[in-house]
TrEMBL record:
GO terms for molecular function: tRNA-dihydrouridine20 synthase activity. InterPro entries: Aldolase_TIM, DUS-like_FMN-bd, DUS_fam, DusA, tRNA_hU_synthase_CS. Pfam families: Dus. This is tRNA-dihydrouridine(20/20a) synthase. HAMAP family: DusA_subfam. The active site is at residue 120. It comes from the Bacteria. NCBIfam families: PRK11815.1, yjbN. Belongs to the dus family. Belongs to the Dus family. DusA subfamily. PROSITE patterns: UPF0034. Its EC number is 1.3.1.91. Keywords: Flavoprotein, FMN, NADP, Oxidoreductase, RNA-binding, tRNA processing, tRNA-binding.
Length: 363
């Protein structure tokens, strides 16, 4: 028998979550820590799961293009659970009118921030003339930002690189940021490495060009009135705290996805909240279960939900077997949420350590 106390599916989208979100109706959220937009990774299931770990970390959607929003299924592209706040949508595009329209749609759906992608180097995005290649067109980005700011009252922010190709001098970056800031953007998230638009894949562009935090630091020092969020290569909250001595916020991407429990201390350490201490991994699974049940009832596949939680026990005893058990089990035809219960109980009992020491169930 399961040791979990699984709550029945509620049918109410806000119902099953024990942890109330920080509503950003009053725009009082802070960007001290955010999880980066990541295509195919930070979908709504992933964000819901991360929200169970930290209530205050700002979450970003994957990039959604204006063309997709204006022609596609908006509920599929922009739908989210109310618990996900504070939540920013990231848009990809270069047409001021289309971006303004999409920003308005996003604001109407309740997003707390609209972010423009000026950092993606992928060839497909370059063909559409948006993403990182827009760093070469500061005036175009300024027009986009101006139109978006006029269309919505939520903050409009820009995520960018420190440069592209041979447009990588500090003066180029300063010119880009001041031009866009003059159009109404007060917050820049800066991935502290340049992008090579020819010859490097998006993955290589996240690794090969060296990180240059000193460039972002100089930007903050020259433009102290702007909110500058540092992104790139940050692995731990210790590192985040060090950077926060000079920047306004840090954004973590891959480390937060592969090791989501690193966010567990974020509310207390970075937001001054969470006196009760971090939630345990087991509490997080318990709260994820009703969501999983609801989503399965709506037709989602188990694998689509559980693929984001494989790293929950990262670098803990039994963590590798947890990962294997969930990823193999979730792909089976008859996969059900009991897979999670079984894995969590086995882990708590020590079964995944191979030591067979029974330590009892954790709840
Ligand atoms: C799988 C994946 C998908 C990504 N998709 C996006 C995206 O949609 N929009 C964006 O601005 N950046 C995207 N990025 C880049 C991240 O937002 C971030 O800038 C980059 O990973 C550097 O941060 P990190 O070193 O903390 O991971 C993606 C990164 C990864 C790993």
């Amino acid at each position: 028998m399961s040791a979990f106390n699984v709550r029945p599916p509620s049918g109410d989208p806000a119902g099953p979550l024990a942890v109330p979100s920080v509503t950003a109706d009053t725009q009082q959220f802070r960007r001290r820590l955010s999880v980066a937009p990541m295509m195919d990774w930070t979908d709504r299931h992933c964000r819901f799961f991360l929200r169970l770990i930290s209530r205050h970390t700002l979450l970003y959607t994957e990039m959604v293009t204006t063309a997709a929003i204006l022609r596609g299924d908006q509920e599929r592209l922009l739908g989210f659970h109310p618990a996900e706040h504070p939540l920013a949508v990231q848009l990809g595009g270069n047409d001021p009118e289309a971006l303004a329209e999409c920003a308005k749609i996003a604001e109407g759906r309740g997003f707390d921030e609209v972010n423009l992608n000026v950092g993606c180097p992928s060839p497909r995005v370059q063909i559409g003339r948006f993403g990182a290649c827009l760093m070469a067109e500061p005036e175009c980005v300024a027009d986009c930002v101006r139109a978006m700011c006029e269309a919505v009252s939520v903050p409009v922010t820009v995520k960018t690189r420190i440069g592209i190709d041979d447009r990588d001098s500090y003066e180029d970056l300063l010119h880009f940021v001041t031009t866009v800031a003059d159009a109404g953007c007060g917050t820049f998230i800066v991935h502290a490495r340049k992008a090579w638009l020819q010859g490097l894949s998006p993955k290589e562009n996240r690794q090969a060009p060296p990180l240059r935090y000193e460039v972002v630091r100089r930007l903050k020092s020259d433009l102290p009135q702007l909110e500058i969020v540092l992104n790139g290569g940050i692995q731990t909250l210790d590192e985040a705290e060090q950077h926060l001595s000079w920047c306004d916020g840090v954004m973590i991407g891959r480390a937060a996805y592969h090791n989501p429990y690193l966010l567990a201390e974020a509310d207390r350490r970075l937001f001054g909240q969470g006196d009760l201490g971090p939630r345990t991994r087991e509490e997080i699974i318990e709260d994820f279960l009703p969501y999983v049940q609801d989503e399965l009832a709506k037709g989602s596949r188990l694998h689509a939900l559980t693929r984001h939680i494989l790293g929950l026990y990262h670098a803990t005893p039994g963590g590798k077997r947890w990962r294997r058990h969930i990823s193999e089990g979730a792909s089976r035809r008859d996969a059900a949420e009991t897979l999670l219960l079984d894995a969590a109980n086995a882990l708590a009992a020590g079964d995944f350590r191979g030591d067979q020491t029974r330590r009892g169930s954790f709840c």
